[in-house]
Amino acid sequence: MGKRVNRMLRTAMHAALVVGMVPTGHAADQSASSTALEEIVVTARQREERLQDVPDSITAFTAETITDAGISKVGDFMNLTPNLFLRRSAGGDGLGITMRGISTGQNGWAPVTLVVDGMPTAGMSGFDQGTLFDVERIEVLKGPQSALYGAGAIAGAINIITKEPTDHFDASGRLVAAEGNDYRVDASVSGPLSDSVRIRLGGSYRDSDGVFKDQDGDPLNSEQLKAVRARLVGEWGNFRVDAVGYWSNLQPASLNSTVALPTTDPAVVKTLLDDFSIRPDRGIIAHGDREIREASVKLSYQLPVGRLELLGGYSKDDLHARGSASFLKPPAAGTFCGPVGGSAAAADCLQDTADNNETKSADLRLTSDSDQRVRWMVGTAWTKREALNAFYLDDMLLDGGRLVENPPVVLDSTHFRHDSFFGVYGQASMDLTDKVELTLAGRWDRNRYDSTQYRDRSLAVIVPQKDGTLTQKQEDSKFQPKVQLSYDWTEDVMTYVTVARGFRTGYFNSGVLTNAESTTNFEIGMKALALDGQLQINTALYHIDYSEQQFSFITPTPPFRGSTNIPKTSIDGGEVEIAAITPIGLSLNVALGVTDARVQDGTESPLTPKFTLNLGARYEHVINDQLTWSARADYRRQGAYYVQTGNQFNVEPKDYLNLRTTLEVGRHWSISLFGENVFDAQQAVQVAALPWYTIRQDTSPGRYGIEVRYAL
């Protein structure tokens, strides 16, 4: 009965969205008159500049767009950005990012630096915080940004700027109800504490059973999330303090999205790549627990020569997850659990994972004023990260029909890492003429890191290395220069050329060293406005020489994960983003990203879609002075890609469509119906053929829901 009701609700919601997307015959006559596209101000170069004046490929999302498109997690805006590909399994088994052909290595640093309110997050873990709320602006910078953002920005950088406290009382809230018993509440309040101090408090709560289901129809991606953020801003003359505190607790049903078939037949592998009616069959539904604690403070003082800023940050991110490692229900004796756990009588096999990161960072910089011919910045940065990454396998035995853990605990692999970054950087932009700007930037980074492997949970028994040492140590350093030349043909048309070096430090994955990698990037681009600001066209073409590409994979023997370096990769690509607003209240956008990434042997680079195509449309109709109706559609076609090196496991292109229709009531209230991934499209984010079976990790299917917003 429950499944039938869900199908009826989906059908009704789909019908309502389709009806809501169709404008009435007289809407064009009553819609608002044409206006120019919104002018967006970004801080990509650590100073406020108009988006169209920055000689970089940037996709920006304003607070209005974030609300209008229903952006509430990292993947939402990534899926609206060309040449940016997020690999997120439905069960939380893994997270990966590819930008312009540069992807993520397991336990390594992300190819893109994520910066929240000026502070960089710790590696890949920062991208998986579960929620975005109370956000003012998101800036996605494509191309190497290492000169300003450090060694992790080999492919780009993402700036997330949360809303500042206001100088008057303000409040807002949001309630979302969606399929899978999914309920979410966001709320924020803001206002002054005195003439000089303002505060903003925000929180988010979500409880969801999930929509990704196993063969029995039970949901596998449930989630409970609690998050709070406080931001305090004080200003006294030339001195400013901006302090942010954030805490969240996420309890996801992780490690559940793996589909397994007990064979390695190539025909079965092809089936797993194409047939998503094959669902996981889990003996134990896994659960995780993740707690994030972050604090940062930015001290600013306006000097006669410019703005002096000191940023300090602390982050503690602890993740623990437990669930079945057999992927089958129940496993037979002598399969995966038998020989690994040591007991042929095992009824199931428990995997126990931990991924804990503690990061401290500081950044001191001096930035000149913007209203001068030469605009410059110099700074120094320091980051220290300690990380514990552990993976355990335990036998699960039947005791009176109940699964119990078989003592003693069998530890398969664990390692401890320590990273210490130090960097100095600078940038200068010079107006050579009233039309020509030259930008020179550079950064030198040094990273020292080590790895110690243990054989017990207490971290007391150390596994010696082949040379007899207890700890492996490594140091990487690199200078990353950037040269840009831009030319303003008119006030609204600018072209630019960029040559830059990118760098990403190496890392240890289960005790195995993966070398540092580097890129040399060449890019030409154009930014243009036309039709009195009603049409915007931004384009870029790039070539990347990529050395020592980092790549991770699943292995059939403990610790079941490995990493390697691909010596040479050549990447060619381009992007075009077009936005237009029409006299009838219709806004349109097109974004196409194309990437041809080839390894030296001629095969295609793994985890790199050949293209991404985004088409978007938004229609708004003013009904009367109290009611405004709008409808929005966002379509994405994601090109094919290979999961493994050597052109192994080709994932076919897929089409994704999000629909949203909104009725605004007065100045304060709005109600929206939405459908996410209404085609129920799914792709494989990981495929591996192991001796016992072939496994696949899936993305999540679609869902429908309703959202109510209030803003004071």
Look at the structure and name the CATH superfamily: TonB-dependent receptor, beta-barrel domain
Straight-line distance between termini = 41 Å
| Helix/strand/pairing category | mainly beta
Give the overall form. Answer: globular
CATH architecture: Beta Barrel
Number of helices: 7
CATH class: Mainly Beta
Q: Please state the average pLDDT score.
A: 86
Q: Which stretches are low in confidence, meaning pLDDT under 50 for 5 or more residues running?
A: 22-33, 338-342
The biggest beta sheet reads: 22 strands, antiparallel, barrel
Provide keyphrases for this structure:
single chain; 712 residues; Maltoporin, Chain A; 22-stranded antiparallel beta barrel; five-stranded mixed sheet; 7 helices; 39 strands; globular
Could you describe the 3D structure shown?
By secondary structure, this protein is mainly beta. It has a single domain (2-711), classed as Maltoporin, Chain A (Beta Barrel). The chain contains 7 helices and 39 strands. The strands form 7 sheets. It has a 22-stranded antiparallel barrel. The chain has a 5-stranded mixed sheet with strand order 3-8-9-6-7. Strands 15-38-37 form a 3-stranded antiparallel sheet, covered by helices on one side. Strand 13 and strand 14 (239-252) form a beta hairpin. Mean pLDDT is 86; it is low at 22-33 and 338-342.
Provide a compact summary of the structure.
With 712 residues, the chain is mainly beta. It has 7 helices and 39 strands.
What is the topological layout?
Blueprint: H1 2-21, H2 27-30, E1 41-42, E2 49-50, E3 57-62, H3 63-68, H4 74-78, E4 84-88, E5 95-99, E6 112-116, E7 119-120, E8 135-142, H5 146-149, E9 156-162, E10 170-178, E11 182-192, E12 197-208, E13 223-236, E14 239-252, E15 258-261, H6 266-274, E16 287-303, E17 306-324, H7 337-341, E18 348-367, E19 374-399, E20 402-405, E21 411-431, E22 436-453, E23 472-488, E24 493-504, E25 507-509, E26 512-514, E27 517-530, E28 535-553, E29 562-581, E30 586-599, E31 611-622, E32 627-638, E33 641-644, E34 648-651, E35 654-665, E36 669-676, E37 684-689, E38 694-698, E39 703-711
Parallel strand pairs: 6-9
Antiparallel strand pairs: 1-2, 3-8, 4-5, 6-7, 8-9, 10-11, 10-39, 11-12, 12-13, 13-14, 14-16, 15-38, 16-17, 17-18, 18-19, 19-20, 19-21, 21-22, 22-23, 23-24, 24-27, 25-26, 27-28, 28-29, 29-30, 30-31, 31-32, 32-35, 33-34, 35-36, 36-39, 37-38
